[in-house]
């Protein structure tokens, strides 16, 4: 199941997160996006919102120096690693619109 988490304290009790609504099928490519916008955070799967959390106001700039910047793994040893591949990881300096996310997901 796709998940996004952000924490300033480095432990699960102080983590803000969003869980996707369903596990992703295996052996298929999927487009995942997280938008940290002015009205909270949205997790997208294949261009469609899969989870939202309006109470997340923490932004990467609030974190300071971060030693554990992972994609596909967790800083918690009990969590499994991603069993898959990642292609075209991007970070933008602004919140993308839902239409921009849909365009990226479509491969256009």
Summarize the topology.
Elements: E1 3-7, E2 15-19, E3 32-37, E4 40-45, E5 48-53, H1 98-106
Antiparallel strand pairs: 1-2, 3-4, 4-5
General description of the model:
Helix content is 8%, strand content 26%. The chain has a 3-stranded antiparallel sheet. With 108 residues, it is mainly beta. It has 1 helix and 5 strands, in the order βββββα. It has one helix at residues 98-106, and strands at 3-7, 15-19, 32-37, 40-45, 48-53.
Percent of sequence in beta strands: 25-35%
What radius of gyration results from the CA coordinates?
14 Å
Question: From the structure provided, what is the oligomeric state, counting identical versus distinct chains?
Answer: single chain
Mean pLDDT: 87
Q: What is the chain-wise order of helices and strands?
A: EEEEEH
Helix/strand class: mainly beta
Head-to-tail CA distance between termini: 26 Å
Q: Which tags fit this structure?
A:
single chain, 108 residues, two-stranded antiparallel ribbon, 26% strand, 8% helix, mainly beta, 3-stranded antiparallel beta sheet
Q: What's a quick, concise take on this entry?
A:
With 108 residues, the chain is mainly β.
């Amino acid at each position: 199941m796709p998940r996004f988490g952000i924490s300033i304290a480095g432990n699960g009790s102080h983590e803000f997160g969003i869980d996707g609504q369903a596990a992703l099928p295996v052996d298929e490519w999927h487009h995942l996006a997280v938008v940290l916008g002015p009205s909270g955070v949205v997790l997208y799967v294949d261009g469609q919102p899969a989870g939202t959390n309006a109470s997340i106001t923490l932004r990467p700039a609030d974190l300071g120096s971060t030693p554990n910047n992972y994609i596909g793994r967790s800083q918690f040893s009990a969590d499994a690693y991603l069993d898959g591949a990642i292609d075209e990881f991007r970070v933008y300096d602004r919140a993308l619109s839902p239409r921009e996310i849909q365009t990226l997901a479509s491969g256009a």
